[in-house]
Amino acid sequence: MLIGIGGVSRSGKSTLANLLVTYFRKNGKKAIIFHQDDFVFPETEIPKVRDKTDWESPSSIDHDLLFELVEEFNTRFEVVIVDGLFAFYDENLNDLYDKRLFVKISKRSFFIRKVADNRWGYIPTWFVDHIWKSFLKYGNDKNIKGDYITVSGEDEFDMEKVRKYVD
Length: 167
Description:
InterPro entries: P-loop_NTPase. It comes from Arcticibacterium luteifluviistationis. This is Phosphoribulokinase/uridine kinase domain-containing protein. By secondary structure, the protein is an alpha/beta fold. It has a single domain (2-155), classed as P-loop containing nucleotide triphosphate hydrolases (Rossmann fold), CATH 3.40.50. It is built from six helices and seven strands; from the N terminus they run E-H-E-E-E-H-E-H-E-H-H-E-H. It has helices at 13-26, 63-73, 91-96, 107-116, 125-139, 159-166, and strands spanning 2-7, 31-35, 48-49, 52-53, 79-83, 99-104, 149-152. The protein has a five-stranded parallel sheet, sandwiched between helices. A two-stranded antiparallel sheet has the order 3-4. A hairpin with a 2-residue loop joins strand 3 (48-49) and strand 4.
């Protein structure tokens, strides 16, 4: 089974992916996660916006390599999970998914979480706004082809709903 998990930055995609891989492994399934962030091009190859690296552009991700590895691992694992802002952007990958989950949070929650995220240092407000706009353009649920469910990332995940969908 191949599962795609998409949503805006800081929505809980990786948390949900980790919860699912743990669930599958506890139930005796061989499961693995691919985080789209692990497939970014070198910073020098990523476009800039106002002299800042635009990690929120689909051209920042090596979609071909991700697709190639997911295709290969999908034959070696019972469950493969892909999470990322652009999880549903690449049509080839989108067509492979058996299950699609979209993690939704409000714009307000996104702003609060993103401003509090100091992993990369200070993020200017204009760039946080740019991230939201990029999500609306490239990562929103309108890009999903096929059936999917939406789960709230505002609080704890409704894992009963998620498990019913993936089982």
